[in-house]
Amino acid sequence: MAERKLILAFETSCDETSVAVVEDGTKILSNIVATQIDSHQRFGGVVPEVASRHHIEWITRCIDQALAEAGVDYSDLMAVAVTYGPGLVGSLLVGVTAAKVVAWAHQLPLVPVNHMAGHLYAARFVGEFKYPQMALLVSGGHTELVYMPREHEYEIIGETRDDAAGEAYDKIGRVLGVNYPAGKTIDEWAAQGQDTFHFPRAMEKEDNLDFSFSGLKSAFINTVHNADQRGEELNKFDLAASFQQSVVDVLAEKTLRALDQYPVKQLILAGGVAANHGLRTRLDREMAKHYPDVLMLQAPLKLCGDNAAMIGAAAAVNYQHGDRAALDLNAVPGLMFDRMKSM
Ligand code: KG4
Ligand code: ZN
């Protein structure tokens, strides 16, 4: 039995190859992230086949670097953890296979982790978790409100019915000629413009906790195309600000509605889109005004995107709860939170 509680974590669900060493679920000893963005940019999005090949090329180098940077060896590890879903099947399989090989070769327990639980646990590096808890998880593939009555129990209480928020950012970014992934640039432009277009806020006032971003995306694209046909050029900063205001309004409104219905001690904000400055500031303001007693933990900017450190943090909790995978663990591209209870 290793003395230190060190977990070697793998994340390869999409287009980042990442390996990390995390101690006690709270301390990052190393977090290597090899991004493939350059290879996907010219296609305007992630090409699954290209992504899997990159993961294969990079994974062993990432393992070596993660161990070296952490200053540890395989014999110091307590467990190996891996994202097994949701994500792209070919990408997931590379991480799952690598993790299995390390677990088998070094006789270490293998801890399966849900990618979205991983995003949530990026906020664990900011402070201790208290339950009941609510999380707004916003990424390129998912937009959901998750209620956690207690540790290791996740209930999705609201989700997008069509596009994820990050996906909408990437699609409208493409129309404005912004390289994939567009979220960061649109966020920067939004800060320099005004909401002059007043795009729709779908489902904002509806009595449910779900989201929809495809109508907003279409309204945005139509506005730009119509102006193009008239030979008119619209102000890109105002377009970005208007789009972002709609997204942030809906996300904030539904989060407050969820907090009304589910009293909690903490609100977690995590996922790639949680890096959005407009969203962070808005939630800070709303929480101070309406829920001053609910502590908000926002995932650190550097850990909002996909990375293995967050997987290591989530894995530490799974490990304590006895989650172990056998060596026949498979990738589950459509993995949902309720599947975790049976793991
Ligand atoms: O969580 P993530 O790294 O990957 C998925 O699991 O999907 O999220 C990536 C998404 C992309 O759609 C990207 O455009 C978006 O997060 N994103 C942002 C910002 N930074 C990244 N969206 C809005 N504002 C940002 N600052
Ligand atoms: Zn992600």
UniProtKB/TrEMBL annotation:
Keyword NADP: no
SUPFAM superfamilies according to UniProt: Actin-like ATPase domain (SSF53067)
Annotated cofactor note: Binds 1 Fe(2+) ion per subunit.
Binding site for substrate: 137-141, 170, 183, 187, 276
GO molecular function ontology, one term from the record: tRNA N(6)-L-threonylcarbamoyladenine synthase activity
Gene3D superfamilies, A to Z: 3.30.420.40
Broad class of enzyme this protein falls into: transferase
Protein localization: Cytoplasm
Entry keyword set: Acyltransferase, Cytoplasm, Hydrolase, Iron, Metal-binding, Protease, Transferase, tRNA processing
Pfam families linked to this entry: TsaD
Catalytic activity: L-threonylcarbamoyladenylate + adenosine(37) in tRNA = N(6)-L-threonylcarbamoyladenosine(37) in tRNA + AMP + H(+)
Keyword Nuclease tagged: no
EC number: 2.3.1.234
Residues engaged in binding Fe cation: 115, 119, 306
Domain Gcp-like: 27-312
GO BP terms in the entry: proteolysis; tRNA threonylcarbamoyladenosine modification
Domain of life: Bacteria
Cofactor(s) named in the record: Fe(2+)
Family of this protein: Belongs to the KAE1 / TsaD family.
Full protein name: tRNA N6-adenosine threonylcarbamoyltransferase
Organism of this sequence: Limosilactobacillus antri DSM 16041
